[in-house]
Amino acid sequence: MKKILVTGGLGYIGSHTVVELQNSGFEVLIIDNLSNSTLDALQGITNITSVAPAFEKLDLRVKADVSDFFKRHQDIAGIIHFAASKAVGESIEKPLLYYENNVSTLVYLLQECNIHKINNFIFSSSCTVYGEPDAVPITESAPIKTAMSPYGNTKQICEEIISDTCAVSDVRSILLRYFNPIGAHHTAELGELPSGVPQNLVPFITQTAAGLREQLRVFGNDYPTPDGSNIRDYIHVVDLAKAHVISLKRLLSEENASDLEVFNIGTGRGSSVLEVIHAFEKVTDQKLNYKIVERRAGDVVSVYADTVKANNVLGWSAQKTMEEALASSWKWEKKVRNIT
Ligand code: NAD
Ligand code: UD1
């Protein structure tokens, strides 16, 4: 059984990925500092898979602790690196926090990869690296645009750091550029639990439906799209999690075509904000309180993935619908809020 290190493995995407890894027979070791997660996720993973993954509370910013960790674990076959800070607005307020937490931690991990000959590395990137695209759907060869936030910039810098490292070492990496992850595990044992007021659309929708928020604001209906609201590619988190397992197997079996590969992980389908709201209303059979307000600064008009490369080269495609994702998000929200 190959041992895989999952950093940020108690977070939203990491915890779902640990489930899929364990279901595929991998032994998982999780590092997380619990800065944006709780031990409930560990219990959730254990409840779903009947296997408790190994877990160490560790802050990847502490280089000495990272070094000590790898000295104690010499048998790691691959790393999936989720741990990072991800709030775009906060990154504008606290850029250095983002550069330290997202960039320094990557450097420390890659240094350990070189020391301990851990050659398989999967990285959480984002479609944010494309900025406002010239054309949709976006292929992986689309140009990287100037980042709109320090968060987005960290993803670009991290991609470059990994690329430079792969060029001169034995490390082989797959960069997965996620589009908009939504949804929860169908058991409602795992899901997204943003701290404070949600910035992302779907958690705001479910919290509004649950009565925690009075009203959802739709940021603009005057964009050049069919209904005037922004278009995004909403990908079910379980489909996204499975893309990591497939990528890992690709690296472990040395099927990768080059030392650095990049894949878009989305559905290939664009949905507008209003379409998401109406799908949520249909799936949950209730009206959502929302109003149209002015545009949000920094929003791109329309972004969705060209998934041909992920489909044909990686052999992965999204299986779940947006409706399934929204239903699972609502089930999770109800469980968390004790709504029957
Ligand atoms: P998350 O915040 O739920 O998970 C990240 C986890 O990393 C958390 O459990 C947090 O406690 C942990 N962590 C943060 N800093 C750490 C540190 N210094 N040491 C140890 N643990 C640390 O976020 P997520 O949504 O699961 O995102 C995972 C990754 O995917 C991130 O790199 C994020 O930037 C990227 N990503 C997310 C989205 C999205 O919409 N959720 C989209 C594109 C890319
Ligand atoms: C945002 C980040 C992106 C990050 C992604 C996932 C920005 C500019 N981009 O993407 O870097 O990778 O989150 O974490 O912040 N919306 C509303 N009302 C709301 C919330 C959102 O109308 O209360 C709309 C937005 O205008 C957007 C869509 O819903 O059109 C999706 O928004 P969001 O979930 O925040 O994701 P992105 O903006 O695509």
What's this, in brief?
The protein has 340 residues and is α/β, with parallel strands linked by helices.
Describe this structure in words.
The chain has 340 residues and is of the alpha/beta class. The chain folds into two domains: 3-181 and 235-265, Rossmann fold; 201-232 and 268-337, Alpha-Beta Complex (UDP-galactose 4-epimerase, domain 1), CATH 3.90.25. The protein is built from eleven helices and 13 strands. Strands 3-2-1-4-5-6-11 form a seven-stranded parallel beta sheet, with helices on both faces. It has a two-stranded parallel sheet with strand order 7-10. Strands 8-13 form a two-stranded parallel ribbon. The model has no long low-confidence stretch (mean pLDDT 97). It binds nicotinamide-adenine-dinucleotide and uridine-diphosphate-N-acetylglucosamine. The site of nicotinamide-adenine-dinucleotide has 26 residues, from α1, β2, α5 and β5.
Core attributes:
41% helix, 340 residues, binds nicotinamide-adenine-dinucleotide, two-stranded parallel ribbon, UDP-galactose 4-epimerase, domain 1, binds uridine-diphosphate-N-acetylglucosamine
| Topology order in helix (H) and strand (E) letters | EHEHEHEHHEHEEHEEEHEEHEHH
How many structural domains in the coordinates?
2
Largest sheet: 7 strands, parallel
Question: What is the CATH superfamily classification of the largest domain?
Answer: NAD(P)-binding Rossmann-like Domain
CATH topology of the largest domain: Rossmann fold
